[in-house]
Amino acid sequence: MQQRLLDGVKVFELGIAIASPNAGRLLAHHGADVYKVESPTSPDIVRLIGSSWLRDNEELAPVAPDSSPYVSEMNADKKSVGLDLKKPEARAVARRLLAECDVFLSNMGARALADLGLDYESVRELRSDIVYVQLPGFGSDEDAPYYPFVAWGPNQAPLVGIDDLTGHADHEPAGIATVAPPDYLSSLHAAFCVLTGLEERERTGEGVHVDIAQFETTVSLLLGPYVMDNALTGNVQSRIGNRSLWYAPEGVYPCAGEERWIAISATDDAAWEALLGLAPGSLGADERFATAEGRLANVEALDEAMAAWTVGYANTDLAARLQAVGVAAHIVATNEDILQDEHVMNSGFYQARPSSRFTRDVFCSYPIRLSETPGSWERAGPSTGEHTAEVLTEVAGLAADEVDGLVAEGTAFTMDRPDLRVDRPYEEWLHVLLPNDAVDSRDL
Amino acid sequence: MAQPLAGTKVVDLSGLAGAYATRMLAALGAEVTKIEPPNGSPLRRMAPFIDGAPEPESSLWWAYLAMGCRSVVVDLDDDGDRDRLAGLMAEADIVIDDHGPDVLDDLGIGYEQTSAGNPGVVWVAITPFGLTGPKRGWSSSNLVAWAASGVLYTTGFDDQPPVVPGGPAQMGLHATALNAAVGVMLGLRGRRLIGRGQLVDLSLAEACLAIAPETGVPVFLDDKVHRVRAGNRRTLSRPFGIYPCSDGYVSILVLMPRHWEAMAAWVHEVCDNEAIIDPVFADMTVRGETMELVDSWVEELTTSMTLLEFFTEGQRRGIPITPVNTVATLAVDPHLEAVGFWSETELPAGGSARIPGPPFRTSADWCHLERAPRLGEHSA
After folding, report:
1. pLDDT band, very low/low/confident/very high, at A12 (cuts 50, 70, 90)
2. Digit-coded pLDDT (tens) for A134-154
3. Which residues contact A72 (CB under 8 A, 6 or more apart)?
4. Which residue from A5, A138, A158 is facing B325, i.e. has the nearest CB?
5. Which residues does chain B have within 8 Å of residue A151's beta carbon, measured at their own beta carbons?
6. Whether the Cβ atoms of residue A79 and residue A35 lie closer than 8 Å to each other
């Protein structure tokens, strides 16, 4: 395999769910050795979720912690090191590993990290030039009012104002019930800070402590103009459905069939003219819609007229017609639609790689595609403790019998029942997911 | 000590899909030159505007996102202007462009032409659907990118059309810009290691698709459950989702047994409710099956308090509760105030306004931002 950008960089990660793991996985994609330090006694939530199809199968119980799709989605190409950090002996081993690492990455609460002796000051004593990036929900300033508060992923979007901005005007906030965008947005900030910190270390020889408080980070990223407007005028921007503040029409409109929708954005006059070339004459003849200002001022009527038009079409057909004349449009895609979408399926965005539990496992890649030094994927997400012995002997410098002793006393953990392997029930989909996969990746 | 990106030259030909990236690069010390058409960047025409400020210096989007940047006016249809731009690109370490596939190439100032004379350039091409594939020529917007991601379909109430997450914040475009910033840092590292720059291919579509994993294709393939939009509370158990209080809404997330115990004890205490502490409700599945009853009990408590009261008392009791903040409640949030989050910027046409502080805090001195530039302020 060709050289990757972060080959040789070692990352110690204490990650939960998404915010830190999605950053660590990006580093692994570009070649870093990312050690996911975890314990079955206080597991990452992705180890608790499991897969629906093996939930009540006692025979497969040892597989359950490794079976959630999130394990690969957030941890592909990482190495799992099983250590029960509640035990002082495990913390001593963790310190030996940390002394060999370039990067510390964690989204555990700041207080929990300090309790483990893994706050920045302590870690810096082990490795003076550590690039230490932490993502506590409310920051690591112990004097701050919300410092002891509990912050969970699905609670972050409401906290930072994004749920209030989601939903139709004059209705209660719809919120974002299925994904936690602030986690992903924080993870990208973390990846940016790790990369910057590593370049700075190259230049100055010094490490850095970066504190990414999701609360502050997401407000800084998303709300600047509305914060300023509120401060200057008292105006409070809230949800406006799918409409735009800046042009019309922009919306989600019904199409032929049950729950079939199309999103359309006619972002300027040229797009509007192009749209009129496909729409019924009445839309173009309506004086109210003749100017950009008129369309915004009469947006209710415009949206009704748009919906009356779009409902006669199949959404895929209308989206293609609109795009052919330069109007931004797309079906409101379901997962089933995405699996039929040649553009996505041929793009390599979904990857399948060998896994120690499954013949192979499927996960997302990243949107950042580099022409000269692309990232690559070798393995799906690790099983709990899969790499404990390898990492503790080869990186932390323990003797093999030391590791055996730690495992025997329950301080370290290795993969449970490595001989137990299963297949996910999606083999029939693999030809769709891997249209260009000439080699059966079972043979990898 | 010099900032991390001091001496790094960035030429920015992007709109909103790249704006947060160049703002962050400028904050870290890069010299960012925004290339604006004679009538100004599209950001300058985005409301909200500053009352009384003259066009094109009145947009708060520009005032916030162009902070720390320089402004040079270039008419891409003018030969002399294009040559001047080519000159800036020949000296650039980084170019960020969101004109779409082929547009700058057709003008003779694309990646291939630029890198021929400037092989070190790291060029981020932000496009709607990527530089390859059947949809490479398609157009997009924040809404369209979310529609393609699968997330929009699952957001909203089932008696209303599906709805885009965080619409007015244009979150999909900011997510794209964040990926651009990461791509820049990867590119700069690559240049140090291999001695040349490269092309970074980044699409709005994939930036949003990358936020879909919790409801996305791999999860769907595992459970084969068709995702539907189910409003602002989850069906898994209750209370889980958005609940009304006396002056707004709060978000409650009770799954763990200890969180339910604390929640039930609280309702019991305040509302004199004996039924809720019946051990049968300790089972989260039972609470899911009796969601209307459980929700009505919880709402009796939530509606009797303000969001700040409910949030702070709930957290004191160890329950994961947050306010559903609005721009107005964030502005008076005691924590943000206490940690000194809020900052201030001058505005391009004079005056000043409060802004959010930097997105992260660093032990080394990384982030500084000056005000946004006036149109063509650095053209000469």
Report:
1. very high
2. 999 898 889 999 998 987 778
3. A353, A355, A361, A362, A363, A380, A381, B218
4. A158
5. 320, 322
6. yes
